[in-house]
Amino acid sequence: MGFLNTISGWRTKIFVWIGLPVIAAAALIFGTYDLAPAWQAKNGGGTEGTFTVEYQKCGRRSCDWRGTFIATEGDARRTDVILYDAPDGLAVGATAPARDTGARSGVFSTTGGSTYLLVTGITLAGAVALVAWVTIIVRAIRRRRAAAAEPSSPPTSFAPST
Questions:
Q1: What's the pLDDT band for 1 if we cut at 50, 70, 90?
Q2: In a designed cystine with 82, which of 75, 106, 140, 159 is the match (CB 3.0 to 4.6 A)?
Q3: Is 160 helix (H, G, I), strand (E, B) or coil?
Q4: Cβ–Cβ < 8 Å for 96, 87
């Protein structure tokens, strides 16, 4: 906990006072939206249906299959959604069994995967960042109060008093 007691340097201060709350807020907001749907899909919940691949969207490090989900029973339909945990060998026009659990941007493959672990990790990282930030704030407030409560010693002077 030595780090918490000696917050010095402008980079550290920026990280502690701006970085940690931003990390905490972003991870908690984005993680909690999909936490319950990811775990529900892992446990077999949600609406069963078919995902039809329409196109692949690639970023710098990964690609996502996007398309339309149509429920097996009922009228549920979602367009332009991601297929999380997509099975290998998909191509444009292919179909895959999927389930809709209400995730913000997509549906989950019924073959399973590790998206639930990723979302859980992001949410936990946000919670840890929030706890660390609150701990730092509380310690800083206590330190300031303790410093203000200390009696100041009179100035030392060698001049004769009158």
A1: very low
A2: 106
A3: coil
A4: yes
Q: Closest Cα partner for 120 from 62, 41, 39, 6? A: 39
The CA distance from 24 to 18, in Å, is 10
Q: pTM, whole model, 2 decimals?
A: 0.74
Q: Where would I find the H helices in 43-156?
A: 115-149
Nearby residues of 40 by Cβ (< 8 Å), 6 or more positions away:
46, 101, 102
Question: Given this model, what pLDDT does residue 4 score?
Answer: 46
DSSP annotation string for 5-57: H---SHHHHHIIIIIHHHHHHHHHHHHHHHHHHHHHHHTT-SEEEEEEEEEEE
- In a 13 Å sphere around the CA of 147, the CA atoms on its Cβ side amount to 6
Nearest 10 degrees: CA dihedral of 94, 95, 96, 99? 140
